[in-house]
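Support case: flavin-adenine dinucleotide complex. Customer-provided input:
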Amino acid sequence: MSLNIAIIGGGASGLIAAVSAARTGARVTVFERLPRMGKKLLATGNGRCNLSNARASADNLWAYHGADIEFAVPALNRFSPCDTVAFFEGLGVLCRVEAQGRMYPACGQASAVLDALRFECERLGVRVLTDTEVTGIQAAEPGQESDAPRFLLQMADSRPDTEVFPYADRVIIASGGKSAKEHGSNGSGFVLLEDLGHKITLLSPALAPIKTQTDFVRQLRGVRVCAVVTLVNNGKNAEIRHGEILFTEYGVSGIPAMQLSRYVSKIGCVLVLDLLPDFALERLLSSAAELLSHAGDESASRLLAGFLGRRLAEAVLKRFGHSPETPAKDIDIPAFFRLAKALPLEVTGTAGFGASQVTAGGADTSQFNPQTMESRLCKGLYACGEVLDIDGDCGGYNLQWAWSSGRLAAQSAADSVDSYIFTTAKI
Ligand SMILES: Cc1cc2nc3c(=O)[nH]c(=O)nc-3n(C[C@H](O)[C@H](O)[C@H](O)COP(=O)(O)OP(=O)(O)OC[C@H]3O[C@@H](n4cnc5c(N)ncnc54)[C@H](O)[C@@H]3O)c2cc1C
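Agent response - structure generated as follows:
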């Protein structure tokens, strides 16, 4: 008789877990609180789904974060980025690798990834219960030998018994973190795990835009520039990232700022922007001197627009205490460029869970077996994806973790037949 496996959450890790478990012959039910599965997947990679990164391996654990990053090693080793590509190509989604090892579906559409997973679930007979939030999990007492399934699931809305199968031999929690709640992950998985005795580490938004003092950034809303961004906490612990930033109404977004958001502390935090990272100060000064030699009464903003773009040049001039119309010859040009190469912005916080892409922190991994993803506290219970205290940098690392851990949880759950008594008699 086949095992009944309940998967809580139909996001990235839940979907791969559903396919992987169903392929072993298990009877799989996915419980999804939203009207459709995989809503977040559609938003990933700006709608293109950066589904993995060629570097997302145990050799590059620098891209992952958590109290014990080594926890991720067995899952990443057993299902690597190459396996991800093979898996999706097996479902008809060809992949391609772009700059910095980022992998995307070749068709450029996140919906192709979601459809492939949904259709495979359908083909394998996975039962999908949408609009169904799991609010409680009752587990059989340890050591209890009975012919009943080990788990009884409680749901937010009672649905007709004919539709819902609340019993399971194994449960996989794939409910995500608490970032981007509109995409489904509302943090309820943490509560389910806590109720079963699991510890949840400190949760904080990661990969979120950074909020700063607004006088400088507000006038630049929508402006993008390539910069080196340094985050300094209380005058020390500088973290540096490089890439395109985007000025917003309330601060700085873009990949470098998002990568730095996990290091933002409550007080004394400053972002320092090098807005001309490709040029040394001397080089900038010699170019400006050349222009100045025949500038006459030309305004500073016109002279400097070619270096930074007009809006940014004007904003730096204002910060410097000058109106854009001030004649260039009246400006302290070396001081202007020194400011443009090290412009400090006081940090006031991050944009929070709602605007973050991932949640740092999660279920304490010391309470799970990294070889199987099974709980050390509750037999037959597994967790995968972002609900665990592992998260990754921008660039496909988070989805690779979702695929690797979801796959391992499902295969372990389906393989664990002999480890304890179970039956599917009631289901
Ligand atoms: C805008 C955005 C863009 C991103 N882009 C990328 C990218 O390009 N590359 C990358 O690697 N990562 C990206 N990420 C991060 C990545 O999407 C997540 O890390 C990944 O989806 C986590 O997978 P998961 O299965 O753990 O959780 P999720 O994908 O969040 O799925 C959890 C699912 O569980 C459901 N659920 C939650 N609680 C319950 C419950 N109690 N009962 C029933 N259902 C429940 C939710 O509705 C949801 O569908 C992005 C995130 C966001 C928000």
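Confidence is low (pLDDT under 50) at residues 418-427.

Case will auto-close in a few days if no follow-up is received.
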